[in-house]
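debug: dumping io for the single-chain case to check the tokenizer round-trip. Nothing else runs in this session.
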Amino acid sequence: MSMTGSLYDDPELASFYDIENTWAPDFDFCTALAHDANRVLDLGCGTGELATALAEGREVVGVDPATAMLAHASARPGGARVRWIEGDARRLDLGREFDLILLTGHAFQVFLDVADQRAVLNTIHRHLAPRGRFVFDTRNAALRAWESWQKSDTKGIEHPRLGPVTVWTETTWDATRQVARYVKHYRIERDGRILTAPCEIRFDDRPHIETLLANCGLVATAWYGDWHGTPWHPDAPEIIPLGQRA
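debug: decoded output
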């Protein structure tokens, strides 16, 4: 989910998402969480791989603001089992509750100020069943991950339609806002064309997240430092609260 850039609003750029973001431990973690959930809300569902997998035998709603991403989601095998909604997680109101609410893929970081962070957490609270659970992830600011996202960090990928593609990222850091602005570049080698997409994401620490949760009527019952279920510690790469209504 991107509130501040065109990274996945363009259909051609969106086609790179599944190549760079394959099934990972966060999906395994969420699949296990959903075992006893009959109704799942996936905020920032992207191209819908996780939502589609969870929709076998339960009701799943996938929400994302990017039209291009949802087009990929609805077209994937099994995508018809999910109700896809183009919407902004800050203002979503479906008038119903869910047993499990997911906000993965670091989607929480696209909310760049406290007002927007509270808005999305209020959305979670509004849609959470009394015994329901939520989980989301944000990168641990203490590790300063943005410093490694530089042009020298290039990689090659194979696009099924476009062929070999070289990918690199250029990043700047705004310490006042606690926001990293990164620009991803995709050079299509067969014709030299370069697709460019900017985005901004915010980095926070655990005390800030704890305060936000408390202000929005939520509480974390567990804190993890990665999607393998490692308990959180100050040097953990992720801050992952699993919780419920307070």
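debug: round-trip ok. Confidence is low (pLDDT under 50) at residues 1-5.
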